[in-house]
C-alpha cells in the first residue's frame, strides 16, 4: 500500500526544505517531491549569503533574523560549513557613507557599525582606494549553496525521517492527493515551493501576483593564494538594491550620482557582492535582468561591469575566472514573499526577491503553523 503523509512539499530548494523542516519539527510525516535529481534551481546557484541587514523594516527584517537563527542551527546539525560570517559594505562615495551611517543607527542596524575611512582602512586592509567608510554587520553567514542543499536534504531524511521523491514532477495538487509523473501521493496537506516555475501549478492564481523572472550572471574567481576576505563584501551599487535602505538619508543623492557615473551598472542591475569559499576562491554576484523568459547567454560586457566594480573595491582584477553561471529567480516588485492559499490544506509559497534564502526558514514556520497549528 502507498505511503500516506501529513504534508507533501513540492520542490527541494531552500524554501521546500525549510517547510519540510518546520513540519518535521512539528511531528509531521513529510514527503518532498522534486522533478530534478537534486536541487538545481536558484538555491543551488545563489551566492549563499544569509542576510539580516538591509531587509525591509518590520516583518521581513523579523523573518530574516529568525531565519538566520534557524540557519545556524541547521548548519550545526546537518554539518553544513559556515564559510564566513559578517558583511562589509564599502562606501566608495560620501553619499553611500551617509546612508550606511544612518542605517547603522536604525533598529535594523542594531549590532552593526560604521567606520570612518582611517578606522576602516586599519580594520579592513583588503579595501583599496579612496573610500568614504565601511559598514560592518556581524550577522550574515555564508554557506556553499550546492553542498548545503544536498547536506540539508540528507539530514532531513536521516535525522527527521523526511521522505524524498527525486526525478518526480508534480502535475497537480488536490486536497489529500498530489498527482506526479510517477503516480499519486497521498498527503493531508501540501505546500508548493516551485521557485521561479510559477506557470505550472496554480498559474492562474499566481498570475495576479506581479511575478516575473530575473536572470543573474555569477562568477567564481581566484586572487593570489592565501587571500582572505573579512566576510562578504559589497559596495555602493548594492545599497540601491536593499529595501531596508530605501528611505534613508543619502540614498536619493547616491542614486543620482550612480545614474551619472555608473549608468550601465544600474541598467543591468549590476552589484558586486563578493563572498569566499573554503578553497579560497571568491564567488562574485552579479547582475539583475528581469525577463519572463530569461535567455541562457552570459554577456561578457556585464561580466566586465561586475569585475570593474570588484577591482574598484578590492584594488585587484582577478587573474582567473574559474567558472561562470546563470541563475534565475522569481521576482515581484510588490512583495518579497508570496503566500497563497488555494484551499484550506494547500499553500503556494514563492520567494520573489534576490534574498529568498534569507527568510525561508521563518516563512516556513509561519506556513506550517497556519496549516497545522502551532503546537
Ligand atoms: C544567482 C542568484 C544569487 C542569489 N543569491 C542569494 C543570496 O545570496 N541570498 C539569498 O538569500 N538569496 C539569494 N538568491 C535568491 C534565492 O536563491 C531564492 O530566493 C531561493 O533559492 C528560492 O528558493 P526556492 O526553493 O523557492 O526555489 P528553487 O531553489 O528554484 O527550488 C524550486 C524547486 O522546485 C522544483 N520544482 C518546480 N516545479 C516542480 C514541479 N512541478 N514538480 C516537482 N518539482 C518542481 C525545482 O526542480 C526546484 O528544485 C539568489 C538567487 C540567484 C539566482
From TrEMBL:
Superkingdom classification of source = Bacteria
Pfam families assigned to the protein according to its UniProt record, in alphabetical order: DAO
What keywords would UniProt list here?
A: Flavoprotein, Oxidoreductase
Give all residue intervals belonging to the FAD dependent oxidoreductase domain: 6-367
Cofactor(s), by name: FAD
Please name the InterPro entries in this protein's record: FAD-dep_OxRdtase, FAD-dependent_OxRdtase_HpnW, FAD/NAD-bd_sf
Q: Which GO terms describe its cellular component?
A: cytoplasm
Select a single GO molecular function from the record's annotations and give it. oxidoreductase activity
Which NCBIfam families does the record cross-reference, listed alphabetically?
A: HpnW_proposed
Q: Which family does it belong to?
A: Belongs to the DadA oxidoreductase family.
Q: What is this protein called?
A: TIGR03364 family FAD-dependent oxidoreductase
Which organism is the protein's source?
Answer: Chenggangzhangella methanolivorans
Amino acid at each position: 500500500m502507498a505511503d500516506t503523509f501529513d504534508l507533501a512539499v513540492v520542490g527541494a530548494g531552500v524554501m521546500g526544505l525549510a517547510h519540510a523542516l518546520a513540519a518535521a519539527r512539528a511531528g509531521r510525516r513529510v514527503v518532498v517531491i522534486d522533478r530534478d535529481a537534486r536541487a538545481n534551481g536558484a538555491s543551488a546557484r545563489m551566492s549563499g549569503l544569509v542576510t539580516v541587514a538591509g531587509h525591509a523594516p518590520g516583518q521581513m527584517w523579523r523573518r530574516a533574523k529568525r531565519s538566520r537563527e534557524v540557519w545556524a542551527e541547521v548548519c550545526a546539525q546537518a554539518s553544513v560549513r559556515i564559510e564566513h560570517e559578517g558583511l562589509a559594505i564599502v562606501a566608495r562615495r560620501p553619499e553611500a557613507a551617509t546612508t550606511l551611517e544612518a542605517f547603522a543607527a536604525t533598529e535594523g542596524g542594531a549590532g552593526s557599525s560604521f567606520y570612518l575611512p582611517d578606522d576602516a582602512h586599519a580594520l579592513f586592509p583588503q579595501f583599496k582606494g579612496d573610500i568614504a567608510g565601511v559598514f560592518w554587520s556581524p550577522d550574515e553567514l555564508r554557506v556553499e549553496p550546492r553542498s548545503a542543499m544536498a547536506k540539508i536534504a540528507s539530514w532531513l531524511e536521516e535525522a527527521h525521517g523526511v521522505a524524498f521523491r527525486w526525478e518526480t514532477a508534480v502535475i497537480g495538487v488536490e486536497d489529500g492527493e498530489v498527482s506526479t509523473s510517477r503516480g499519486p501521493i497521498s498527503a493531508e496537506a501540501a505546500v508548493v515551493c516551485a521557485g521561479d516555475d510559477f506557470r505550472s501549478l496554480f498559474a492562474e492564481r499566481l498570475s495576479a501576483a506581479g511575478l516575473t523572472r530575473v536572470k543573474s550572471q555569477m562568477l567564481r574567481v581566484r586572487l593570489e593564494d592565501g587571500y582572505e576576505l573579512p566576510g562578504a563584501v559589497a559596495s555602493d551599487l548594492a545599497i540601491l538594491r536593499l529595501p531596508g535602505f530605501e528611505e534613508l538619508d543619502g540614498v536619493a543623492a547616491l542614486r543620482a550620482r550612480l545614474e551619472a557615473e555608473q549608468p550601465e551598472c544600474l541598467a543591468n542591475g549590476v552589484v558586486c557582492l563578493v563572498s569566499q569559499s573554503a578553497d579560497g576562491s571568491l564567488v562574485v554576484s552579479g547582475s539583475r535582468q528581469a525577463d519572463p523568459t530569461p535567455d541562457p547567454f552570459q554577456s561578457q560586457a556585464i561580466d566586465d561591469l561586475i569585475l570593474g566594480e570588484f577591482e574598484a573595491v578590492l584594488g585587484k582584477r582577478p587573474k582567473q575566472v574559474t567558472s561562470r553561471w546563470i541563475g534565475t529567480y522569481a521576482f515581484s516588485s510588490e512583495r518579497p514573499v508570496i503566500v497563497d492559499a488555494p484551499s484550506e490544506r494547500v499553500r503556494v509559497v514563492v520567494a520573489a526577491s534576490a534574498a529568498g534564502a534569507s527568510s525561508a526558514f521563518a516563512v516556513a514556520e509561519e506556513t506550517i503553523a497556519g496549516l497545522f497549528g502551532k503546537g
